[in-house]
């Protein structure tokens, strides 16, 4: 049964491969009560996958209206938790990069290439090391020689 196939975000992506006739048959031949049940089950699964509530409601409504034609074509299953983890890491890195730049600004003018290099770093541990070096450095050149020696190449 269709419901048994839906256990993860990857399973939703695979629904794009379900033959069109299968979904049309469910749409045509299923009683309203079954469509409501399918909509509820899919809603629970989507909720567990951290899909925004508005998308869940729209998706379930489409099922209950028997509008299966393009139901899964435009659905992009994604993991909100993973997106949040990535965003959190980006925020941490940006904050640490700004600390490094703040220490360096106290030592003089930070060149645009150096600023871009620091802001583009995605490794929070490396940025922690850089912030410690920047806090103790006597000059921007000292920081560069210890942390980013190839910046001027």
From TrEMBL:
What is the protein's name according to its record? Uncharacterized protein
């Amino acid at each position: 049964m269709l419901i048994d196939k839906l256990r993860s975000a990857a399973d939703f992506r695979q629904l794009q491969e379900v033959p069109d006739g299968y979904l049309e048959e469910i749409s045509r031949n299923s009683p309203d009560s079954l469509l409501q049940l399918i909509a509820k089950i899919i809603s629970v699964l989507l909720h567990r996958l951290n899909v925004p509530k508005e998308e869940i409601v729209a998706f379930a409504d489409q099922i209950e209206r028997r509008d299966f034609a393009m139901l899964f074509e435009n659905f992009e299953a994604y993991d909100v938790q993973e997106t949040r983890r990535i965003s959190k890491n980006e925020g941490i890195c940006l904050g640490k990069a700004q600390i490094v730049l703040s220490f360096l600004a106290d030592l003089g003018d930070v060149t645009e290439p150096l600023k871009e290099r620091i802001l583009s770093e995605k490794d929070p541990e490396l940025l922690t090391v850089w912030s410690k070096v920047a806090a103790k450095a006597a000059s921007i050149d000292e920081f560069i020689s210890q942390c980013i020696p190839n910046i001027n190449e």
